[in-house]
């Protein structure tokens, strides 16, 4: 792919993963338009760059999208409600901000003649799987969370647009990402709690949940590798993106406590799951991705340490959420 | 299940399958409220019955739903855009009338304390499968149509509500249904065309598409059998409903022409698929359902003949679509 010849939209471009993709595209000489409403994104994550344009607005505003998408070629669609844990508190949020928003993105593309889109899906799309590591063609999943359900709904829309309108679609099923600009998930939750009270730490579930994590720089390389090299039938490119390794919550706590130099009393809320709809074990099979020549560089532990380093140096990220 | 002790909502209760369910529930002594906007349903399909109430309105009107659902126990949710073939002509229709409408149904249930819901999904949810007959735990499907994508989105919402809010959910993945009150699909299309011009018949695709069909009376028995007998983990009951047999389009045409006593020239549009996103082979594995003691009674051919008999006797059904 000749990046300098394409004009990219990055939705959620001021967010954690999106902003790293913006940097990666700019460094390759691409023109980039960031679409973000700053509901969870940070202006601090966006560089000043002559090739970068900011379009501030919401994906629920279809006129704004139609206007903004004109004259572009390729969409990286990251904007989403990524609040997995509290989905049940606001049951319309995932439908609106994920499913409907994604459909709006696809419609704005169709109307403006854009045909290439890459979408950040999730390992949660597999629901609670019995096959671990979970491959892309695992058994038809039963959704256990509104978040997973909404992401699967988005995937279906993308692939239907591939078949129906000749779109070229890339679906990334992510494990949890770590690294600079990480602002959401169990590490920031623990970090925040331990800053407030280093003597005790409430842990959701029994601490035995075990999940895979990946450093965001490895993730960005994986996404670009897929866009550049993937050859799949019908131009539907579905890839797990994750580490071969995984990390138990208890081990994660050990690393965090060591780095923060604290020894809290651990208070488990109990049960196998951190919350309703939580999958206690997440490890994705990534042979498809590795077949393109990709390999992670960070160990999971180093990714956790790098995340903590970022949070320590950028306390403004703690002010939200 | 003691039907006479429950108050049922049947969305799409004036439609093909919905109206048969209404009849089946009334005959069992249940109180039934039909929710229908008559966009595709027929008033002629609803009986006058002291236990039947009609609530005319759309599933996109959340206030209407909240008001109507109060005081009920169990929802059979049939209302949907079932226009699979022309999904690409109106790309927002499936999202609105299937995904958003279903979410509105679930929210109206949650707000009113209803917790049991049965949903008409589809074999199209499997996309284009390599495993035929296709079981409920077939490989993670790639959606090829907006219709299939929207139904999978609905399934995900239902099961997420099961895990999140303790709902009891029944998901029926149907093959195409036939029989009295059938008003949509290839048989009525052929029938209508042959009435207009018995000398020729345009056939979408190459005529070799082969799909499974079931008589609606067998379908109703299957749905009730599942509600009465199914025991599945987490109260998530997912079942294929279909025949062991299937029918090639060309064979279907033979039956229709024989019954109508016509011999048209067949004009194939060509290609393996009738339309974009069409699955040329649909046959569902139904061991799970048969394990509950259910068995079909109509042969596929008899179901086609019974459908034609209905259409001949009820020409008002030809006036729409």
Task: Describe this entry's structure for a reader.
Two copies of one chain form a homodimer. The first copy, chain A, is α/β, with parallel strands linked by helices. Chain A folds into two domains: 3-177 and 214-241, Rossmann fold (3-Layer(aba) Sandwich), CATH 3.40.50; 178-212 and 244-319, UDP-galactose 4-epimerase, domain 1. Helices cover 36% and strands 19% of the residues of chain A. Chain A has nine helices and 14 strands. Chain A has a seven-stranded parallel β-sheet with strand order 3-2-1-4-5-6-11, with helices on both faces. The first copy, chain A, has a three-stranded mixed β-sheet with strand order 12-9-14. In chain A, helix 4 links the parallel strand 5 (116-122) and strand 6. In chain A, helix 1 (16-27) packs across helix 6 (216-229), helix 2 (62-69) packs parallel to helix 3 and helix 3 packs parallel to helix 4. Chain A is globular. Chain A starts with 6 loop residues before the first strand and ends in an 8-residue tail after the last helix. Chain A binds chain B through residues 87-88, 91-92, 95, 99-100, 103, 106-107, 110, 126-127, 136-146, 148-150, 152-153, 155-157, 159-160, 163-165, 234, 236, 238, 276-277, and chain B through 87-88, 91-92, 95, 99-100, 103, 106-107, 110, 126-127, 136-146, 148-150, 152-153, 155-157, 159-160, 163-165, 234, 236, 238, 276-277.
